[in-house]
Structure formats: structure tokens, C-alpha cells
Amino acid sequence: DPKIIQKPKYLVAVTGSEKILICEQYLGHNAMYWYRQSAKKPLEFMFSYSYQKLMDNQTASSRFQPQSSKKNHLDLQITALKPDDSATYFCASSQEGQANSDYTFGSGTRLLVI
Amino acid sequence: AQSVTQPDARVTVSEGASLQLRCKYSYSATPYLFWYVQYPRQGLQLLLKYYSGDPVVQGVNSFEAEFSKSNSSFHLQKASVHWSDSAVYFCALSDSNYQLIWGSGTKLIIKP
Lengths: 114, 112
What we know:
The structure holds two protein chains of two kinds. In chain A, 0% of the residues lie in helices and 50% in strands. Chain A has strands at 4-7, 10-13, 19-25, 31-37, 44-50, 53-57, 64-67, 75-78, 87-94, 104-105, 109-113. In chain A, strands 2, 4, 5, 6, 9, 10 and 11 form a seven-stranded mixed sheet that branches. In chain A, strands 1-3-8-7 form a four-stranded antiparallel sheet, with no helix packed on it. The N and C termini of chain A lie far apart (33 Å). In chain B, strands 2, 5, 6, 10, 11 and 12 form a six-stranded mixed sheet that branches. In chain B, a hairpin with a 5-residue loop joins strand 5 (32-38) and strand 6. Chains A and B meet through strand 9 and strand 10 of A and strand 5, strand 6 and strand 10 of B.
């Protein structure tokens, strides 16, 4: 059974539209993350949340907004989509406060903006 | 500053040959170090991790890595690669905030 669920797997969006990427983890972890992967950047850290609070934001654009409605959810809302936003977005989780805690990744949402 | 460097963007080896993927780190204290693998169209999966003890760490699928404090390295090795090892491999370091600092990845290509 997948321990981190990302929905949808594939997403095609029109330029200027808004989409929400879903992430749920069933590992009991208290920290969740969003990463982006594209041809330009192999693995780009975006956000980290701990106990549903934003800990770190490395995303320059306010068009990207994480949303945590439950402690095991961290969705990513993207507004005013641009073709440059096309990428695979990965959600991950870990047990925060433990340096040797490894990350578990979801299988990603592949976003194509046309 | 903390950093992880994977100097080889791409490595090609023949099936059955041995493999070494290089990882160099910069960190003031003893680091927690990780290797992750990403198979095509999948998320990243943990291969192995190191903090202390034996500098040679065993991982899944017969991978191992050797920590060297003097060289600030954590190279990944495998004695005999299989075509199914074709993937992108990421080295990472856990910083003082317990967040991972990632290398840029090395794409491994296996020749038949």
C-alpha cells in the first residue's frame, strides 16, 4: 500500500488557470515537504511543514501556496499557471527532530501547462 | 556552508561491471548522509544512510557506500551492476535543522 498518496498522477492545465495538487501521508510523520523536479533543476526544494506549520519556503513566487487541512495532508495550490510551471511535483515526509530520519517520497504529480 | 556535490551528471557502465558514484560533502560536524535512487517515473527511494560506526554501509540491492571524513566523501559502490540499476542517484546530507541538502543527481546508464 502506498504510504504517501499524491493525486492526480498526471495533470494538464491551461495557462492562467489554478490547480491543487493533493498529498496525504500515512506514516505518522510530523514533517512534510514539497519538491519540484524538471529538466532545468533535478530536485528543487519548495516548502517544508512541521506540525502543520510552515518551516521553510524556498519558492520565490506567491503563486505557490501549500495548504495543510490535517496533520497528514499537505496540498499545493498553484495559481495563474505558466508553462514554466510544467514539472513533476513530489511530496515527501519525515519524522522531524531526528537527524537520521529519512524521507519517504510520493510518486509525484506530473504537471503540464499548455 | 553546507553542500553536497555529485560531480558526475551521467555515468555509463557495462552490465556486470563495477560501479562507483561520487559524492562530496561540505559540513562542519559529522554528517548524516544518504543515498536515494529514482527509477523512471517514480519518486525517490532510500538506498542507504550513514551516521556513525563502520564507514562502509550496506544498502538495498547490494549497494554500499563508504564514508571518508578525511576526503569529505560518501561514494556509492556496487560490485556488479544490472540493467535494472538504471536510474538517477541522489546523495544527500542532513543539516542542523534535520532537513536534507541534496546533490544534483547522477544518471546511471547501463550498457548491455
